[in-house]
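User: Some background: our group keeps a shared notebook of sequences we're curious about, and every so often someone picks one and asks for a predicted structure to add to the entry. Today it's my turn. The entry only has the sequence so far, pasted here. Could you supply the structure so I can complete it?
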Amino acid sequence: MKITILGSGTWGTALGQLLCDNSHEVTIYGIVKEQVDDINLNHQNLAYFNNDVVLPSSLKATMNLKEAMEDPEIIVLAVPTIAIRSILEQIKPLIKNRPYLVSVAKGFDTNSTKRMSELIREIIPEQMRQEVVSLIGPGHAEEVIYRYLTLVTSTSLDFEAAKKIQEIFSNHYFRVYTQTDEIGAEYGVALKNVIAIAAGCIVGLGQGDNARAALLTRGLAEIVRFGVAFGGKFKTFLGLTGLGDLEVTCNSRHSRNFQAGYAIGKANSAKEFLATNTKTVEGIRTAKIVYQLAKENNIEMPITEAVYNVLYNDKKPSDVITQLMARQLKDETE
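Assistant: Of course. Here's the predicted structure to add to the notebook entry:
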């Protein structure tokens, strides 16, 4: 099957290798010449991976978008959420033969606060594509590239579309489950980035396992409260796109959101990190969007509000933690 991956970063490269392992014809589109040349000439991507990662020789890369869009049956959107709208508008006039559009991004469109699948449907009309699929869950590209065991979900409103992508991506080290609760799944994988920033802050401040366990538990309660309010199913948040993704993002050294929170916690301030950070940290934008949506819909989100205040109101992490611990006592089920 002919597959185009838009994005030559960690996920784009790891999924490119995965799909080559599954005997598909894969082209990665990138905008950085050094990365594209590295993939084509050296079968590596040293911008993101160590030199012991040798990519399949069948994996191709290009900077020519028109070339990349020559009749792929599947298009994988593997760019940061902030770039999704732009890349969709660029590929729209080039799309033919109703391909599957697979999103692996976790977050919201910053212009509209729409989920990724909603944004794709807005820009690429139904007559130009199959139903949208989100391939999401607790997967770090840094482990997939080494073919470590990974489980994710193929989520779509159309079960048959979800199953199609499940079959194409699954192999002995990458197991894909299907589900149709798009709202719950997409909110789950987006909101966990906010909680991961909080988890990093706690560790950076010198707190221990008790505090982190409590944060993950109460963070999951917030995610469920928010997601169910917008139509997600409760059981989805106990699965791979909920609890699974939350756990790995809040505990892994590969998590940029956790790393960001750790740096902010160590400094007891977000100011320096925000001024010097050059990496994509999805939870920073997500915190603002979720905070605003929660306020508009009267959804109680104390951890999210605390992260928002640290990031956008220059509050000290130590102070907001003290405020969280001093909140009015309540029943855990509330």
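Suggested note for the entry: The longest strand covers residues 150-155. The chain is about 50% helix and 10% strand.
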